[in-house]
Amino acid sequence: MNYTVIDRGDQLSKQLAEQFHQLVANIGFSHQPDNPDLVLSIGGDGTLLQAFQSYTDRLEQVAFIGVHTGHLGFYADWKADELEKLVEFMANAQPTYVRYPLLDIEVQQAKKTTSYLALNELTLKGVDQTLVAQININDELFEMFRGDGIVISTPSGSTAYNKSVGGAIVHPSFEALQLAEIASINNRVFRTLGSSTLLPKHHHCDIISRKEQRLQLSIDHMAITDEDIVSIRCSVSDQKVKFARYRPFPFWDRVREAFLGYEYNE
Fold first, then answer.
1. 11-25 and 83-92 helices cross at what angle (nearest 10)?
2. Record-annotated residues binding NAD(+) (predicted)?
3. What CA–CA distance (Å, rounded) separates 259 from 252?
């Protein structure tokens, strides 16, 4: 199997990456960063988002595994002290593959249109003042927004920024996107729903800039600041991200351990 490793860059993550190279060399794996079948992320969720963005052109061929070296790794199945156990599974067992929905993003600027994929979310904020935007759903006006910003998240990303602004946690088996508001201002000119909104696959939403304004657009770990963003279209992607599982780790177990702080033991 061809593989590559992306680590966070701290000392522990680098040490684990080197250890992994040594361990898998003994089972015949080949380090092929340009053509991997497996991408191992060592660090936190930010590291895995970086790994995902590095291989969006190979999602059909690539599976991801996360090893977390911090206090919380929502996408990671393995802890730092379990690396040898992971390699033992890789040598002797076939993984189960799980696939999570992604977000298609089309950013229209004054002179170009650029497409992106997001594993977690898109966040749009005003830089110098509040964001003023029209929100369309399926090409129909839905609301006029004024406030700090808007978050559009995938189901797996619903546990990130979306949750902190009051959005719902959504199981990744739902092919949906979620629109959540960040500190909306409601008056007789700007009226918003106030709660997060779920859109199914084959629906789309557009965020349309309603004045000249400098905007900060964040897509997973990437940030873009620009004053010529005209509109952003978001929809559920036809592509999915693939994770290789060598042992069960149900989504609700991840949620419980991440946010409630305990493990269940029979």
1. 30
2. 45-46, 120-121, 146, 148, 159-164, 183
3. 10
Taking 50 as the pLDDT cut, the residues of the chain under it are 266
Is 228 assigned a catalytic role? Answer: no
The model's pTM: 0.92
d(CA 120, CA 191): 27
Residue 262 pLDDT: 66
Binding residues for NAD(+): 45-46, 120-121, 146, 148, 159-164, 183
Q: What's the pLDDT score for residue 108?
A: 96
Catalytic residue (choose from 7, 45, 206, 220): 45
Measure the N-to-C terminal CA separation of the chain; round to a whole number of Å.
Answer: 36
- What is the pLDDT at residue 72? 66
| pLDDT per residue as tens digits for the range 193-222 | 889 999 999 999 999 999 889 999 999 989
- DSSP assignment of the chain equals -EEEEEE-SSHHHHHHHHHHHHHHHTTT-EE-TTS-SEEEEEESHHHHHHHHHHTGGGTTT-EEEEEE-SS--TT--EEGGGHHHHHHHHHH-PPEEEEEEEEEEEEEESS-EEEEEESSEEEEEESSS-EEEEEEETTEEEEEEEEEEEEEE-TGGGGTHHHHTTPPP--TTS-EEEEEEEEE--SSS-----S-EEEETT-EEEEEE-SS--EEEEETTEEEEES-EEEEEEEEEEEEEEEEESS---HHHHHIIIII------
Binding residues: 45-46, 120-121, 146, 148, 159-164, 183
